């Protein structure tokens, strides 16, 4: 997907909401477990109920890989369903891949060619040659881990060298990589206090913001310093929406949660 298409969706829907499809069979409504593919059926209902309020979907691949071949097939069916019926939605494979160059090339082919996601999350620890293979794919986007929400992020991401924090160094160095205009960055909502500094380094890039809702981040805090002239934010919520109910009304309740978040975001979309 071209960035301009993403911007148009934000303006059309008055939303920056991305919904994380992190399916746990122990949390979905029990009546779905009798179906042949409960994971896909859950996703399908969630998508149908929420698609008018969001601009993207982000399946975390771990939640599919955990169920073996059945889980992977459900992931494939989910992305195929989105691409066929809701092609305007920006799709993110939350896979956090990253390896030596030839391995990264194969990861990129898996998510961009076989599954046909618009983007994939990538870990930058191994450096330039582990990320650039993802950046070779036209109209595909690589979302680099920048500053994450988890408590352990401080173990490494805040280490200081040459008067610069490690996560700041990652942001700066990545801007010099081939096709860096196709980079986006993961910035946790619970680290919103750093967004002013982050925007001084990458003023034009889109930021994927997880951690709103169940993890404690706020839309207001993210928008205050994270918005740019092209909006520049993809704000993700997973558990707070998809598990709003574990009864037969789960899709309806998810739709209401998504609508409420969209309404809150609308205030910041001028």
TrEMBL record:
Domain Orotidine 5'-phosphate decarboxylase: 16-254
Similarity-based family: Belongs to the OMP decarboxylase family. Type 2 subfamily.
Listed InterPro entries: Aldolase_TIM (IPR013785), OMPdecase_type-2 (IPR011995), OMPdeCOase_dom (IPR001754), RibuloseP-bd_barrel (IPR011060)
Pfam family membership, one: OMPdecase
NCBIfam families reported in the protein's UniProt record: pyrF_sub2
Protein name from the UniProt record: Orotidine-5'-phosphate decarboxylase
Catalytic function, reaction form: orotidine 5'-phosphate + H(+) = UMP + CO2
Keywords attached to this entry: Decarboxylase, Lyase, Pyrimidine biosynthesis
Gene: pyrF
GO molecular function: orotidine-5'-phosphate decarboxylase activity
Organism: Psychroflexus salinarum
């Amino acid at each position: 997907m071209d960035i301009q298409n993403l911007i148009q969706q934000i303006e059309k829907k008055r939303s920056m909401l991305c919904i994380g499809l992190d399916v746990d069979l122990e949390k979905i409504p029990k009546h779905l477990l009798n179906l042949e593919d409960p994971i896909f059926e859950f996703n399908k209902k969630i998508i149908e109920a929420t698609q008018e309020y969001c601009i993207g979907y982000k399946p975390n691949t771990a939640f599919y890989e955990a169920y073996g071949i059945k889980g992977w097939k459900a992931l494939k069916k989910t992305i195929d369903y989105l691409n066929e019926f809701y092609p305007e939605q920006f799709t993110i494979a939350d896979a956090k891949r990253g390896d030596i160059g030839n391995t990264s090339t194969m990861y990129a082919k898996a998510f961009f060619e076989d599954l046909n996601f618009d983007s994939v999350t990538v870990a930058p620890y191994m450096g330039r040659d582990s990320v650039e293979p993802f950046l070779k794919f036209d109209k595909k986007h690589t979302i680099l881990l920048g500053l994450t929400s988890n408590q352990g992020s401080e173990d490494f991401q805040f280490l200081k060298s040459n008067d610069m924090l490690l996560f700041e160094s990652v942001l700066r160095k990545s801007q010099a990589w081939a096709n860096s205009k196709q980079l986006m960055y993961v910035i946790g909502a619970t680290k919103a206090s750093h967004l002013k500094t982050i925007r001084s380094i990458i003023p034009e890039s889109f930021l994927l913001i997880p951690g709103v809702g169940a993890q404690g981040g706020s839309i207001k805090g993210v928008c205050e310093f994270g918005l740019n002239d092209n909006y520049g934010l993809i704000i993700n919520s997973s558990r707070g929406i998809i598990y709003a109910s574990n009864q037969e009304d789960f899709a309806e309740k998810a739709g209401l949660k998504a609508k409420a978040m969209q309404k809150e975001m609308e205030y910041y979309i001028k």
